[in-house]
Amino acid sequence: MRSSKPITVTLGPQQASLDVRLQSGAYASASEVMRAGLRALDREEAALDEIMRLKIREAIADPRPDIPASDVFERLRARHADAGKAHK
Question: Quick one: pLDDT at residue 41?
């Protein structure tokens, strides 16, 4: 029994990209292209997740004292106000 089910996908402008890959012979079917695309997306998301985990571990291990949220937001408001003045 099949573990997957057929689906219909509308690619829009990406159809040309799929067609090029099929015409090149790199892939035998649109299904192969779609599976390769999903595997690439899975790898990208896993890499981003790992980057975020690393940044979180670094932040937790940072020995510097915490900055109160009110101070952070005050700095952000000031920076935003300065940026707004620079655009005028």
Answer: 98
| Per-residue pLDDT, 86 | 77
Round to whole Å and give the CA distance between 88 and 72: 25
Q: Which sequence spans correspond to the domains of the chain?
A: 13-63
The pLDDT of residue 56 is 97
Q: Distance between CA atoms of 29 and 69, rounded to whole angstroms?
A: 53
**Dihedrals φ, ψ of 79, to 5°?**
-65, -40
Cβ contacts of 13 within 8 Å, gap of 6 or more = none
Determine contact, residues 39/27, Cβ cutoff 8 Å: no
User: Which pLDDT does position 88 carry in this prediction?
Assistant: 67
Stated length of the chain: 88
Q: Which segments in the chain show pLDDT lower than 50?
A: none
